[in-house]
Structures are given as structure tokens and as C-alpha cells.
Amino acid sequence: MAEQQRKALWREETVSTEQLFEGKMISLQVDTVALADGRTATREIVRHPGAAAVMALLDGKLLVVEQFRKPLEKFQVEIPAGKLDPGEDPLTAAARELEEETGYRSKSLRLLSEFFTSPGFADEKLFVYFTDELEPGVQSPDEDEDLNVEAITLEQAEAYIRDGRISDAKTILAVYAWKLYTLTGRL
Questions:
Q1: Which residues contact 165 (CB under 8 A, 6 or more apart)?
Q2: What are the helix (H) ranges across the chain?
Q3: Distance from CA of residue 49 to its chain's centroid?
Q4: Is 143 a residue of the active site?
Q5: Residue 39 C-alpha from the chain's centroid
Q6: pLDDT digits over 120-148, tens only?
Q7: Structural element, H or E, at residue 33
Q8: Number of neighbouring beta carbons within 10 Å of residue 43
Q9: Which among 95, 118, 112, 123 is positioned nearest to 177, based on CA atoms?
Q10: Which candidate in 73, 135, 143, 155 is catalytic?
Q11: In what helix (H) or strand (E) does residue 47 lie, and over which residues does it extend?
Q12: Cα(first)–Cα(last) distance of the chain, in Å?
């Protein structure tokens, strides 16, 4: 079957949308969709403006922030990250979040990867940047953020993954990219 025929058979057309929730960070809707065979189904969809994160190396160590994550009911160690403001360029958001959360600015940020976090139910796209060119800035976390900033070695990062202190996709991706970088000199 040709690619276009396959896509046409599997495409879901939206019949109706019911908006259930509109928050500061996300919205939730339920779409009724028409399937190619004539049946209908429902899809619960979380809308998110997207986010940017930074894999920042300072003197050969990874800058991370530890904070309590209510959905998980535990503290997590993560690379600095935050949501995009409406219409904001992901590069601008990455630079802002790096300084706000860690107190460091970057002389240059390079896109490492971009991906959808949970495409089965959400449209959030995450942009991960890399830098090893840092200079002191001003830390200014959001007023509801309590962060502990740390610079960790690759061995510590791998131990944090094993122990579950690092368990989010963006930070695991950053740690494995960092490992590749140390082995090959390339990202």
C-alpha cells in the first residue's frame, strides 16, 4: 500500500471538540473523531504550549536542579527547563530558563533534539539545547519554585538514573547524549 493511501485510511477527522479544562499551563479537551471505517471514537487531548530545556556543562559537570514534583510525589533531579510563553521562540525560552533556574547564562545554545513528550494524549513539544559556554548570571526562579542547583559528574548522573532520582525523559536523554559526547566528542 502506498504511503499516501495508508495515511488516508488511518487519518482521524475531528467531528466535535468538548473543552473540559483551561489552566495556566495546560488545557484538556475530548475530541470525537471519525475513523476511516465509519466508526467514531473519543480522544482525550492535553494541549501544552511546549517547553525548552538545556543540557549545560560547567567545568565538565552537568548543571541540574532538584525540585519536588507533585504528580510524582517525590523530588526529581532534572536539567533546567520550562514552558514556552505564547509565541515564544524555544531558544529564547531555553536561555531564560537556564539563567532563572541555575544562575548561569550561555554564550551560545545549540539545538540537541526536539520531540513530543507523550504523543498518545498530549501535543507538548520539547526542545533540548546544549551548551558548554557558561558565564555567571542571576538566578531568579519563579516564586513558587524551590530549587536546589547542583553540578554533577557523569557517574553521579548515571547513579541518579539507577536510583530513580533522575527519571524524566529529557534528563535521561541529556545524560546519554553527554555520555556519547565524552566518548566521541560529538553530540
A1: 66, 75, 76, 77
A2: 3-10, 90-102, 154-163, 169-184
A3: 11
A4: yes
A5: 35
A6: 999 999 999 999 999 999 888 778 878 99
A7: strand 27-34
A8: 14
A9: 112
A10: 143
A11: strand 40-47
A12: 37
Helix, strand, coil percent content, the chain, rounded in steps of 5: 25, 40, 35
Class of domain 51-114+125-184 as given by CATH: alpha beta
pTM: 0.90
Q: Point out the least confidently predicted range of 4-13, 73-82, 162-171.
A: 4-13
In one letter, which amino acid is 178?
W
Q: Where are the domains of the chain?
A: 3-47, 51-114+125-184
Whether 178 and 62 have beta carbons less than 8 Å apart is answered as yes
How far is C-alpha 101 from the geometric centre of its chain's CA atoms? 15
Sequence-ordered list of residues with C-beta below 8 angstroms from that of 180, at least 6 positions apart, any chain: 186, 187
30 to 3, 18, 36, 131, 154: CA distances (angstroms): 28, 5, 19, 39, 42
Please write the tens of the pLDDT for every residue from 8-53: 667 899 999 999 999 999 999 999 999 988 899 999 999 999 999 9
Q: What are the cell numbers at 26? A: 495546560
